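Troubleshooting: if your tokenizer reports a length mismatch, compare your output against this known-good record of 179 residues.
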Amino acid sequence: MLKNKYNDSIIRELQDELNITNVLGIPKITKISVNVGVGEVVHDNKIMDYVISDLTKIVGQRVLVTKARNSIAGFKIRKGMLIGCKVDLRRCKMYEFMERLMYFALPAERDFRGLSPKQFDGLGNYNFGIKEHIVFKEINYDSVYKIFGMDISIVTSTSNDKHAKLLLNKIGFPFNEGL
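Known-good structure output:
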């Protein structure tokens, strides 16, 4: 649905507003990266299994487990220890995740008043975090072992923050313009 909306109307609107003659120069979302860091795995090894299964339910594809590159004695982390997981979403799964994120998960977040429009990284990408993964409808609240947060990066094809913000506004991303 979101992909069809982008292809049917948003491309033409962006082309007119940005005065782009070539259709390939129009900004688009190339991927969405979801990252979860699990620092508590040092004290409880079961947490990683629950995080992997919950994140797989949320994104709809297999996740990549990340390992520590170096040992850090202050954090009790050894080289090669499992410390998090990440996933990159592209094409149809990316648009499906974006819809569920915009229409169900973000409005269900506690005290949600919109996302800050200041979180662009200068290269046209938007980064934000979610404090609780239980805002997604795929997660059964009664079977949650540990609540975790996630970092989400929306990567666009443009290197201009204004063009990327215009793209996300056209899609209907919930920005809080009062910030």
